[in-house]
Amino acid sequence: MILNDEQIKNIQICGKILKESLYTAAEHVAPGVSCNYLDEIAEQAILKQGAKPSFKNYFVDGIGHYPYTILTSVNNEVVHGQPTKDKILKEGDIVSIDIGAIYKGVCTDMTITVPVGKISNEAQKLIDVTRVSLEKGIDAIKVGGHINDIGHAVQTYAESFGYGVVRDLVGHGIGDKPHMDPQIPNYGAEGTGPQIRNGMGLAIEPMINIGNYKVKNGADDWTIVTADGSLSAHFEHTIVMINDEAVVVTR
After folding, report:
1. By C-alpha distance, which of 114, 109, 106 is closest to 98?
2. How many Cα atoms are found within 13 Å in the side-chain-facing hemisphere of 198?
3. Spatial distance between the Cα atoms of 54 and 158, rounded to a whole number of angstroms
4. 65: exposed, middle or buried (C-beta count within 10 Å: 0-12, 13-18, 19+)?
5. Which residue of 39, 78, 147, 250 pairs with 15 in a disulfide if CB–CB is 3.0 to 4.6 A?
6. Nearest 5°: phi and psi at 88?
7. Whose CA is closest to 250, among 106, 78, 61?
8. 3-class state of residue 30 by DSSP
9. Cis omega before residue 182 (within 30°)?
10. How many other CB atoms sit within 10 Å of the CB of residue 180?
11. Strand pairing partners for 173?
């Protein structure tokens, strides 16, 4: 989808709303806190600013409607962890908080991984490398370039630390729907894939495992976990191509 001028204006507003809402919830991450409490805070923050959660009631074929505003994935959970009341954070955990909003017909998407209390050096390194891998991917975005330039940059950086770059889950286009074409893998060969154009909305989201890249379905219908049980981290930004520049609207 190529966004028009009005949509670009609104997606920039939506990005600011989403960032503030995510960090408002993240401020409450601590040992003993329920992920459902974080979900309530995030939803209130989005609504207060005139937007709506884009994940809540989102329909996935074969599973149903997602019942929450955010996704909370803890430790070996890669993505799509549900913020239930009995999911209580513990000292030493890491938690990825994935959040989406819709404002005046356009959507944004964002994820950060944060520590719960004091975490291991190994876990902190994973968080740091995953965060930087997102920035490497963003730096690779150029009008006239190709989608797989992004994944190549992510993969090259993350794999230099011996980490596994998840293959089965990808970033995506974004605009008047939360998830759109093109798919944006976090691996690939430079110079391949769809061409990047002005007006494109892109959600870039490296998912990096300490172990290998393989994942599997978790105990519920939603959660995806690492196949080897290793820790996983996840960062995401929404980017819009404006006047040949990759503008990060969720920064």
Report:
1. 109
2. 6
3. 29
4. exposed
5. 250
6. -105, 125
7. 106
8. coil
9. yes
10. 17
11. 180, 202
Q: What is the DSSP string of 50-65?
A: T-EESSTT-EETTTEE
Residues contacting residue 15 through CB under 8 Å, at least 6 positions apart: 108, 110, 238, 248, 249, 250, 251
C-alpha of 140 from chain center: 18
The rounded distance, in Å, linking the Cα atoms of 14 and 17 is 5
Residue 33 structure tokens = 């806190």
The pLDDT tens digits for 69-119 are: 999 999 999 999 999 999 999 999 999 999 999 999 999 999 999 999 999
Q: How far apart are CA 30 and CA 178, in angstroms?
A: 29
User: Which residue shows structure tokens 């009631």?
Assistant: 57
End-to-end CA distance of the chain: 22
| Tokens standing for residue 3 | 């966004």
Q: What is the pLDDT of residues 162-171, one digit of tens each?
A: 999 999 999 9
Report how far residue 124's alpha carbon sits from residue 99's, in angstroms, rounded to the nearest whole number: 22
- Structural domains in the chain, CATH included, are 5-248 (3.90.230.10)
Closest CA to 78 of 214, 173, 250: 214
Query: What tokens were used for 164?
Result: 């596994």
Q: List the structure tokens of 201.
A: 């909305």
Classified as helix, coil or strand, 136 is helix
Phi, psi of 22 (to 5 degrees): -65, -45
**C-beta separation of 196 from 141 below 8 A:** yes
237 membership: H or E segment, kind and range: strand 237-242
